[in-house]
Amino acid sequence: MIKSINKLLLLTAVGVSGVAQAAWPEQPIRWVVPYPAGGGTDVIARTVAINLEKHLGKPLVIENRPGGGTSIGATAVANADPTGYVLGTADSGTLAFNPSLYKQLTYDPAKFTYLGGLARFPLVLAVPANSPYQKLEDLLEAARKEPGKLSASSAGAGSPHHLALERFKQLTNTDILHVPYRGAAPALQDLIGGRVDLMFADLGSGLPNIKAGKVRVLAVAVPERLANVLPDVPTMNEVGVDGFVAYAWQGLVGPGGLPQEVVEKVSADLLATLKDPEVSEKINAMGIETMPMTAGQFKAYSDKEREEWAKVIQAGNITLD
């Protein structure tokens, strides 16, 4: 009788242990995107998710939670149970800009579990096709001759486009009027129409108009020339704006305290996905660069960007609340 009871207890313990050690994931995973469906961030998430879920073995369900300068989506991820079944896109606004732009945030960038990089959007300085400024030097000369006369559109106050403009103004000692819009599309339309003089556009939304000849690029805000799409356009460094680099970028995060085995699996599978030629070619075709990083590399990159952009935001006295 005692032997039977001991055997039963042993079998029960093995069963419980087997349940406790079941491999993650056991169910679909929610991927929170802090922007509306159809935009560049949403497209990146869906493109990556199709391949990533093959590695994970479970569906990735995209959930769009736009608003609040990405705070609504970021807060949803931050407040989720740390089981690995809620992850989310976090971009340069979420992780690098917002802590300096807002006095109070409903999430803490330092408390996310960082999982890896996703993509970065090169920024370029563009002017209307019929602009009188053929070179960046011409534009700078005009800006310095009549401070405040030139105007620049952006996707909104605190957007990567706006903050790239602010960094540009600080480095070149120029006064250019910032004109914020509700999104990159209307900002580009007014640039095309000549209602503003320039814009720091991201290639994710600007490339079709560049290829169509509706806008002209004077310089790229990245370290090297964009050989695949704009091989003849100089970098900012080449035209004398030393040290000017600006990307819009994004990665994948989860709530704080995710199990290490979840972090390791997602990070490894995400790296494999971004290195898949089919995925990288789709992303590169949009004028966007894949940004494969380990969990640790993405955390270090985000921390450095937050520190660098805090200086720009503070020097420009920019606040959003």
Automatic annotation (TrEMBL):
Q: Which domain of life is it from?
A: Bacteria
* InterPro entries, alphabetized: BUG, Bug_dom1
- The signal peptide, as residue positions, is 1-22
Q: Could you confirm whether the keyword Signal appears in this record?
A: yes
Q: Which SUPFAM superfamilies match?
A: Periplasmic binding protein-like II (SSF53850)
Q: Which UniProt keywords apply?
A: Signal
> Does Nucleotidyltransferase count among this protein's keywords?
no
Task: Offer one Pfam family short name for this entry.
Answer: TctC
Family, per the entry? Belongs to the UPF0065 (bug) family.
**PANTHER family (alphabetical):** BLR1237 PROTEIN, TRICARBOXYLATE-BINDING PROTEIN
Q: What is this protein called?
A: ABC transporter substrate-binding protein
List the taxonomic lineage.
Bacteria, Pseudomonadati, Pseudomonadota, Betaproteobacteria, Burkholderiales
